[in-house]
Hints:
Layout: E1 3-7, E2 11-16, E3 23-30, E4 37-41, E5 46-49, E6 55-57, E7 63-66, E8 69-71, H1 75-84, E9 89-93, H2 106-115, E10 117-123, E11 127-129, E12 133-137, E13 140-145, E14 150-158, E15 164-171, H3 174-181, E16 187-189, H4 193-198, E17 211-213, H5 228-241, E18 248-255, H6 259-272, E19 275-277
Parallel strand pairs: 4-9, 11-18, 14-18, 16-17
Antiparallel strand pairs: 1-10, 2-3, 3-9, 4-5, 6-7, 7-8, 11-19, 12-13, 13-18, 14-15
Helix pairs in contact: 1-5, 5-6
Amino acid sequence: MFFQKTIKSKIILSGVGIHTGKKINLRLIPSQRDTGIVFYRKDKEFPIKAKLPFVVDTSFATTIGIDGIKIRTVEHLLATLHAFGITNLIIEIDGSEVPVMDGSATDFARAILKAGIAKQGKTIPLLKITKPVFYEESHSKIIAKPYKGFKITYKIFYEHPLIKEQLLTLDINEQNFLKEIAPARTFGFLKDIQYLLKNGFAYGCSLHNALVLDEKGVIGENLRFKDEFVRHKILDAIGDLYLFGFPLQGHFIFEKGGHTSHVNFLKMLIESGCYELKEKQYFNFELSAQVV
């Protein structure tokens, strides 16, 4: 049985958007039962639910939006909320991008644990995978299988001597997330910087908030894990999967995935019907485009 949860007290954070390069202030505000995860653009006075129907872009980050009002790079914060079981929260933001912090989810995780997590005395539906589902696009493959728990397997391969092939399987819970996944930082390649800048990305990227790789290795930083790269991919996947809006039960297997394939997989999974929602009476959590 999964109980709805929020945080016990407000959290205030600030940082730079990795793509916009702008300073952003963030407030996480406890919310009542059945609210869901709702971003609120303070500068636009506009709410956007963190749900799949509102995903508007997946280029180098997951972006949600409505009618041209967007919030970029939501995945690291959503991953933290997902792993900690936070189901109700207002995320007040004064700009168009969630701050990247140090490129990982550690600051979000520590802030939430310091504020405390409050169980709200009402259950939330559990989205349970009932039959295997297979998705493939380009070089990416994703499989969802029945499993009594929430497990992710991720495999990546890059033509780089420091990365090559990395594979990791992990049951996702608060403890494993905090220790094994949250510290893993976003990464990119020096050779791609000019392309990214030309196309409106990475204006806030630095050696302080991302692992930047040249032809031989990481520039100016030590890895937190030998396989930090695949761990960060798992972080992204946990965040993107929370766009369902429900706790998940299943084993999700990714090969060479990214935000685009993650989101396309979620859409296909919904259409497949290879899942069930326990406690279906709580349909105010339904996968619809309703905004609060």
